[in-house]
Specification:
The complex is a heterodimer of chains A (354) and B (447). With 354 residues, chain A is mainly α. Helices cover 59% and strands 1% of the residues of chain A. Chain A has a two-stranded antiparallel ribbon with strand order 1-2. Chain B has two domains: 280 residues, Rossmann fold; 73 residues, no CATH class. Chain B has a six-stranded mixed sheet, with helices on both faces. Classes of the chains: A mainly alpha (354), B alpha/beta (447).
C-alpha cells in the first residue's frame, strides 16, 4: 500500500454547521438500482415500425401507391383516435410511445389494397378505441388491437374485405382479371388435388409476394427481413414464430390428403400453406405482440402450438380460406390461463412434498 | 485454457471501473472524530461496553457480541468517547453508535498476535478468533463470517468459494486487494479451508479483471497452493451473488429458502478473506476497510483504506467531489447500493464504495408493463418479476408467495432492464415486508 496522500480533515465546527445547513437542501433518495438500461418502450415500438417498412415497400411494388395511401390513413386515424381518447379521458397522452403507429400499420397490412379508405379508418378507430383504450391503453389490452380491427371489418364489410387486387406482375396461373383470388382461396376452391405443379410453380411468387392478398402479408421475404431485425434486437423470440409456423407445416404435411407423407405433393402442400395468406405476418408480427402473448417461455410455446392448430383447423375444415387472425385472437384469450400454468422453474426450486 | 463459467440470466450494466481500477489503495488518515454504529452486521446489534468519557485505543472492543449471530465492534481510533447515542446509519434508521474523538496518537490495543503458527491452531479456536475480530461479509450483506464457517454437522461443507467477482459497476476495492495483497489473500483462503476442512477450493474472478487474474494465478503457482483453483467468470451482473457464483462454479443450486451450506458450499468475499488472515496472523480486529470513492460527481476518484466510523463527507471531499452539484450519494454499487439522505453517515464494515452522482436516476417516467419478458430473461432466479410486481401492487400476497416472491435476491436486474422503467424490485421488496407482516400476524394468532 502507498503512503498517505490525502490531507487530514480539519475539525472546524463552523464548517460543520454549514455542512448541515447545506446538506438539508437535497440529496435524491430512491430505491436501487440507480442505473437503467437505455432501451425504452418507445425504442421497442420504433424498431417494430422499422421492421415493418420492408413489407410496406413490397406492397407498393406489388399493389401500387394505393397500398401506401391506405396504410397512411390507417396510421393517422389510429394515432388521432388514441390522442383524442386520452384527451377525453383526461389522461396523459400516450401517442408518444408510438404503439398506435404499430397498430395502424398492422391493421393496414391486414386489409385488401382495394378497401375504401374510410373503412380502414373505421377499423383503425375500432382497434384503438375498443380493443386498446377501453381496456386501459397500452399494456391493458388482452387481444391484439389490429386483429380486433380486422375482425370488426370482416364482420361489417365482408365483401369489400375479400375483393383482391391482381398484382402488377400478373397473377397466379389459372386466375385472371382485375379482381384476383388469393392463393388460399385458390387452394380451397381451385385446387383439385391433381394439379400439384400449379402449386409448385406458385411458390416463388409466394415467397417474393407477387400474389393477391392483404397489403402487408404477401411478401414473405420482406416480412422475414423485418423479423430478422426484431430477432436481432431481441424484441421477438424464436419460440412463437417457429412453433406457430412449424405446427402449421407439420399438420398440413401429415394431413396432406393423400395419405403418403413422402411424395412431392406431401411437401408442396405444407410449403404452399406456410407461404400463403397471413401466416408469416401473423406468426412473425402479430402472435409475437408482447402485450397479448404469454410472458413465460413455456407459455409462448403452448400459445404458438394453439395458434398453429387453430389455423390448420380453420384453413382445412372451416368456411374461411384463412384462419390466422381468428386463431391468434382466440389464443389471446387464453393467455392468462397459459401464464398461470406455466410458472417457470426457479433457481433452487424444492419439490413440494404431497 | 480456462472455461469461463457463468449462470443463467443476468444483465450487462456498463462497468465504469476504468477510473479507479489502476489506482493503488491509499491510506485515508483517521478523522478527528468517528461515529461507529453498534450494528454493522446482520443479526443482533452489539452491546456497548464503554461509556462517555472512557479512553479507548485502536482495535479495542467497544461493543460485545450479543448472541451467536452477532459480532463485536471495535474502535478504529484512540481517544475519548464523546457519547454513546443513536446516530444516523447508512442503512437508513437511527442506530446506537459510539462517538469517539481521535487524539491522533493511534495507540494500539495490545493485540494477542498469534504465538503459534496458524496451522497449529484448532479450527474451533480459529472460528472463535474470527468472531472476536468482528469479521462480517464485506461484500455488502455483512453476514457474520464465523456463522458461515460453523456449519452444523448435518450439513457437510466440501467446497469453499472465494468471491472475487466484484460484479457491481464502479467498485474496484476487491480488485485492488487481489492485486496488492495477493499472498495475504491466499493465506486467508488456506485458513478458511482448514476451518471448513473443504475438499475443493475456488477463487472466482470476472474476466474483466485480467491483472487480478494473472496476479492470483502467479501467486498460486509460486507458492504451490495446488488445492486452490482459479475460476474465470464471465463479466455479467450479478455474477458475485452468492447463489449465482455457486451455480457458475459448481453447477449446484442452493435450495429455495436455504443457505449455501445446504448444498455443501461456503462463499466468502475477497475482503473478508483478507480480514480473516489479518485477524489470525496479526491479531487485528476489523476496524478498517477498502472503499472505492467514485462516480460522475467525484473529481478525483480513489481506492481508500478507511477506518470504520469515518463520515462519508470527508471521503467525498478528499476525492474532490463537487458537493454543490451532487444530487445523489450511494453507499455500495449502483445496482444494489443504498441512496443516502446526507453525507454525515459513517463508513461501516460493509461499505464497499461511495458513489456521488450529479444527477438523479434517469428514466423517471414509468410506462405500463408491455409484457416484453425482459425481466424474466434477466432474473438470475428465473422469477417473473413483472407479475410479482403486479401481485404486490394489487395486494395479492398469497399469489406472490405462490410465484416465489420470497426467493428474490433483490439484485435489481429486472428493474435495470425494464423498458417501461418500472421499479420492479422495489415492489418485490415491499411484497417481502407484507408477507413477513402477514406471517408474523398468523404466528401471533396461533399462540
Amino acid at each position: 500500500m502507498t503512503t498517505p496522500s490525502v490531507t487530514r480533515p480539519k475539525p472546524d465546527f463552523q464548517s460543520q454547521v454549514n455542512d448541515v445547513k447545506r446538506e438539508t437542501v437535497s440529496l435524491h433518495i430512491s430505491s436501487s438500482p440507480h442505473i437503467r438500461h437505455g432501451e425504452s418502450v418507445r425504442g421497442i415500438m420504433l424498431w417494430v415500425i422499422a421492421a415493418l417498412i420492408p413489407s410496406l415497400i413490397a406492397s407498393v411494388i406489388f399493389f401500387g401507391f394505393q397500398a401506401l395511401f391506405l396504410t397512411s390513413v390507417s396510421v393517422i386515424s389510429a394515432v388521432l383516435a388514441e390522442w383524442l381518447i386520452s384527451h377525453l379521458l383526461k389522461r396523459p397522452s400516450s401517442t408518444g410511445d408510438f404503439s398506435a403507429v404499430v397498430t395502424g400499420l398492422l391493421l393496414a397490412y391486414n386489409v385488401s389494397p382495394l378497401l375504401p379508405w374510410w373503412m380502414v379508418a373505421i377499423g383503425s378507430v375500432f382497434a384503438i378505441g375498443v380493443a386498446k383504450m377501453a381496456f386501459g391503453g397500452l399494456g391493458g389490452n388482452f387481444i391484439n388491437p389490429a386483429l380486433a380491427g380486422r375482425a370488426f371489418l370482416m364482420a361489417s364489410y365482408p365483401a369489400a374485405m375479400t375483393s383482391w387486387k391482381a398484382t402488377g406482375f400478373g397473377s397466379l396461373s389459372g386466375i385472371d382479371g382485375i379482381t384476383s383470388a388469393t392463393p388460399l382461396e385458390y387452394f380451397k376452391s381451385g385446387f383439385s388435388g391433381e394439379n400439384i405443379s400449379e402449386l409448385q410453380n406458385a411458390l416463388g411468387n409466394l415467397f417474393i409476394g407477387n400474389v393477391g392478398g392483404c397489403i402487408g402479408e404477401t411478401s414473405v421475404i420482406a416480412l422475414l427481413i423485418g423479423a430478422m431485425l426484431l430477432w436481432y434486437k431481441k424484441i421477438i423470440g424464436f419460440r412463437i414464430p417457429l412453433f406457430y409456423i412449424g405446427t402449421v407445416f407439420f399438420l398440413f404435411w401429415i394431413f396432406n390428403g393423400s395419405g403418403d407423407v413422402f411424395s412431392s405433393r406431401a411437401l408442396t402442400i405444407p410449403l404452399y400453406q406456410i407461404l400463403s395468406g397471413g401466416l408469416m405476418l401473423g406468426a412473425l408480427f402479430m402472435a409475437t405482440d408482447m402485450v397479448t402473448s404469454p410472458i413465460t417461455p413455456t407459455g409462448k410455446i403452448i400459445f404458438a402450438l394453439g395458434c398453429g392448430i387453430l389455423t390448420f383447423v380453420i384453413r382445412k375444415f372451416g368456411g374461411y380460406p384463412e384462419g390466422v387472425s381468428y386463431s391468434i385472437l382466440l389464443m389471446n384469450l387464453f393467455v392468462p390461463h397459459i401464464e398461470r400454468y406455466t410458472k417457470p422453474r426457479i433457481y433452487g426450486e424444492v419439490k413440494k412434498r404431497d | 485454457m480456462f472455461k469461463k463459467c457463468t449462470f443463467k440470466g443476468g444483465v450487462h450494466p456498463p462497468h465504469n471501473k476504468n477510473r479507479t481500477e489502476k489506482l493503488p489503495i491509499e491510506i485515508f488518515p483517521a478523522p478527528e472524530k468517528v461515529i461507529i454504529p453498534l450494528s454493522q452486521h446482520i443479526g443482533a446489534p452489539a452491546k456497548p461496553v464503554v461509556k462517555r468519557g472512557d479512553y479507548v485505543t485502536v482495535g479495542q472492543m467497544i461493543g460485545e457480541a450479543s448472541g451467536f449471530i452477532s459480532v463485536p465492534i471495535h474502535s478504529s481510533v484512540s481517544g475519548k468517547i464523546l457519547s454513546v447515542a443513536p446516530f444516523p446509519h447508512p442503512l437508513g434508521k437511527q442506530v446506537m453508535a459510539v462517538e469517539i474523538e481521535n487524539d491522533g496518537k493511534d495507540e494500539k490495543a495490545a493485540y494477542k498476535s498469534s504465538e503459534n503458527p496458524w496451522r497449529e491452531i484448532a479450527p474451533g479456536e480459529l472460528i472463535q478468533r474470527i468472531q472476536s475480530a468482528g469479521i462480517v461479509g464485506m461484500g455488502g450483506a455483512s453476514f457474520p463470517a464465523h456463522v458461515k464457517l460453523s456449519p452444523p454437522s448435518n450439513k457437510p461443507v466440501d467446497t469453499l468459494i472465494i468471491n472475487g467477482a466484484e460484479c457491481e459497476p464502479y467498485l474496484t476495492a476487491d480488485h485492488r486487494l487481489m492485486l496488492e495483497r495477493t499472498e495475504d489473500l491466499l493465506i486467508g483462503v488456506l485458513i478458511l479451508k482448514k476451518i471448513l476442512n473443504a475438499k475443493r477450493c475456488y477463487i472466482g474472478i470476472e474476466e474483466n479483471k485480467p491483472y487480478a487474474i494473472s496476479a492470483v494465478k502467479t501467486a498460486i503457482k509460486k507458492n504451490h497452493y495446488d488445492k486452490i483453483k482459479l475460476v474465470i467468470l464471465r463479466a455479467k451482473y450479478p455474477q458475485g451473488g452468492e447463489k449465482q457464483l455457486i451455480d457458475a462454479i459448481t453447477g449446484r443450486n442452493v435450495p429455495s429458502g436455504g443457505l449455501p451450506m445446504d448444498c455443501g458450499c461456503v462463499v466468502q468475499n475477497v475482503g473478508t478473506t483478507i480480514a480473516v488472515r489479518d485477524a489470525i496472523i496479526d491479531g487485528h480486529p476489523l476496524y478498517q476497510r477498502v472503499v472505492t470513492v467514485t462516480g460522475p460527481a467525484v473529481g478525483s476518484p480513489k481506492n481508500l483504506l478507511v477506518r470504520t466510523g469515518t463520515p462519508m463527507k470527508y471521503l467525498l471531499e478528499a476525492c474532490q467531489t463537487d458537493m454543490e452539484a451532487t444530487k445523489k450519494v450511494i453507499m455500495g454499487g449502483p445496482m444494489m447500493g443504498l441512496a443516502q439522505t446526507h453525507t454525515d453517515v459513517p463508513v461501516i464494515k460493509s461499505t464497499s464504495g461511495i458513489l456521488a452522482y450529479n444527477k438523479t436516476t434517469p428514466g423517471i417516467r414509468e410506462y405500463p408493463c408491455i409484457n416484453c419478458g425482459r425481466c424474466i430473461q434477466a432474473c438470475p432466479i428465473n422469477l417473473v418479476p413483472s407479475r410479482l410486481a403486479k401481485f404486490v401492487e394489487r395486494k395479492k400476497i398469497d399469489e406472490a408467495v405462490e410465484w416465489n416472491l420470497m426467493d428474490c435476491i433483490e439484485c435489481g436486474s429486472c428493474t435495470f432492464i425494464c423498458p417501461s422503467k418500472i421499479n420492479l424490485v422495489h415492489f418485490i421488496k415491499l411484497g417481502k415486508v407484507h408477507i413477513q407482516a402477514k406471517r408474523a400476524a398468523a404466528a401471533s394468532k396461533k399462540q
